[in-house]
Amino acid sequence: MQATAYTYDPQTRAGSVLLDDGTPVPFDAAAFDAGGLRLLRPGQRVRIELGEAQDGAEGGDAGRRVTLVTLQTF
User: Fold this and answer.
1) CB 24 within 8 A of CB 58
2) pTM of the model
3) For residue 16, what are the contacts with CB-CB under 8 A and spacing of at least 6?
4) What are phi and psi of 2, to 5 degrees?
5) 32 membership: H or E segment, kind and range
6) Spatial separation of the C-alpha atoms in residues 9 and 15, rounded to whole Å
């Protein structure tokens, strides 16, 4: 699935992406590390994989969380 990087904190390596419908979905350091990236800038197109959110997890897209975020390649 594709999305657009929305926020990123280099200290925590967590942030959020916007799905193509504008829904924000957060990602944690584990999802960022799984993609092998070193930095992410808002506005970059990324490829993501979604999984089920854990109980009590916050996010704009209820029930889903990003499990991998990496750069979109063609």
Assistant:
1) no
2) 0.81
3) 6, 7, 24, 25, 26, 27, 60
4) -105, 155
5) helix 29-34
6) 6
Amino acid type, 56: G
The one-letter code for the residue type at 32 is F
Using DSSP's 3-state secondary structure scheme, residue 33 falls into helix
Amino acid 49 reads E
Q: Is pLDDT above 80 for 57?
A: no
60 φ/ψ angles, rounded to the nearest 5 degrees: -75, -20
Helix (H, G, I), strand (E, B) or coil at 35: coil
- C-alpha 8 chain-centroid distance: 9
Write out the H or E segment, with its range, that includes residue 27: strand 24-27
Q: Residue 11 carries which DSSP code?
A: T
Segment 59-73 mean pLDDT: 77
Mean pLDDT of 10-36: 95
